[in-house]
């Protein structure tokens, strides 16, 4: 029989009991002790641990992969995702009702991360979401949660009952709104036949429900493009369209209904920060479009059809591909599967055809569609297990780089000539950088969770991480040079800028001594300056500035904290203490041969814990 002693902080006591009880206790003790050791040192053998000194054990602990929650098994990359993705067991729900909230006040949603609400009662978001980055920051440095949320005033606490009233006598002229729509929005998503639309408007009025919805959604977005954030005329036009886009409207399929839903779900609801509702609406529009056969190329011979029918076919194609474009971009930062958005065997609609040498919308949309096909493949890969590898990321990135080289030179040349191309071209460049950022970010998150030393990382992993940070910096510079004082430009710029800025913010927590820290700080401070400049042209600019500033200040506190100096050792010991001390109350701890002579010394554990707090 082994000689065993109970190790307690008050001293040693011999164990007494029957042989069977003694064997059962030994077995249970061995299992629990082994579990704790594996949690602390998942990649090291017990023989190695037994030979290390106290200081060496503390140093080794700082190099071990991060641990998540109550799971005491060695952590893989997939298991680490559980730290930053809510599981299906969570109560996913959200409330984005437009009619009951003031869109000017309600600038935060559970997707854009501006509410800083990280608990459940939100929609499901995957690893490509903004919330994933915030969760990693808090996982690395738990005290950051308190600092970031200190004085936080999410929009949920400031909702006003219903939208603000607008004097309809002060509404902008309809022609002004129509002109603004075709100047600032049409070339980015050319689903409206401009000539036919203007002609029908001038020959009006028309009382059919689908036209009222379609016409007023164009006015809704046009009024936004023609004004700054102090003008709320868009909500009046939206309320005119709203009754004609209810469930009954889904019972009668028509091209104009699809177009109205596309503008609502593809643009306006995102402007109001209602991304989940937008996703639902675009889903309905896609289903109606399929029912209308928009995804199929007509079998008619183009030589035997009239100009009017040819233009109708082109509008159908453009509407389909605009839906494809809207759904891809809306899903890019949600981390949700595409559910078969793109299948070349089922979708036969031709790409948009330019109706003339200066058909700018067709040129932009063709480039966007090819880009979105790559984005859809990336999105579907993110939704599958295992976690995307560095090699896969580099392969996808090569496709994106090749796409960028093939962007028509005509588009670049026309941008300087036509002001209406300024917004879509700037947005296309920024979204190209954003998709590359989203593609590289998962490996950055995992590396940050583990706080890995660059010396032990594989070359491919290092390339992905470094590229992610370079893209974030390039995005800030691109937005600084391309945005202009218009709501359509600033609205998209703020969202993309916020995503890019989260990367250097994460770096300040995961690598506070990294040689690139000065560059990260410079990039963050540039973003703060841009948010301030955009405040009159973006509903979310002020809140984005506030959230970035909070996290930035928290990173400075974290750097000065003694916990940070321990490179995560303190947090690891705190976690170990939470797991270890409850077991002490249940059972006695022993030294026995299975563990190579490793003895659990509670004074050592407590000393290491206290050492990190000085």
UniProtKB/TrEMBL annotation:
SMART domains: Fungal_trans. Signal peptide: none annotated. GO terms for molecular function: DNA-binding transcription factor activity, RNA polymerase II-specific; RNA polymerase II cis-regulatory region sequence-specific DNA binding; zinc ion binding. GO terms for biological process: DNA-templated transcription; positive regulation of transcription from RNA polymerase II promoter by galactose. Pfam families: Fungal_trans. PANTHER family: REGULATORY PROTEIN GAL4 (PTHR47424), ZN(II)2CYS6 TRANSCRIPTION FACTOR (EUROFUNG) (PTHR47424:SF5). This is Xylanolytic transcriptional activator regulatory domain-containing protein. It comes from Hyaloscypha hepaticicola.
